[in-house]
């Protein structure tokens, strides 16, 4: 079963402070689409080093959204990119789509 993004970590971080929670969510909703777009441009252009850096950045969002298994998949994919390999790309792209869909609901 594929894990689902959630707000557990954000709820823990915010400690009941709704304004802080909303601020975190707003930042993720603003940054994620841009970071994802840059990743897709770099991966399409076979810019492996840049793609690995993009995945590294996106890993933080994956972690914040409570996706532990997905974080490990992203870490493996990041390492593969450093070796000029796209093994793991399909799984990583699926994770990005899950997050995209989730962010549209919150």
TrEMBL record:
Residues 17-106 form the HPt domain. The modification Phosphohistidine is found at residue 56. This is Hpt domain-containing protein. Keywords: Phosphoprotein. InterPro entries: HPT_dom_sf (IPR036641), Sig_transdc_His_kin_Hpt_dom (IPR008207). The keyword Repeat does not apply.
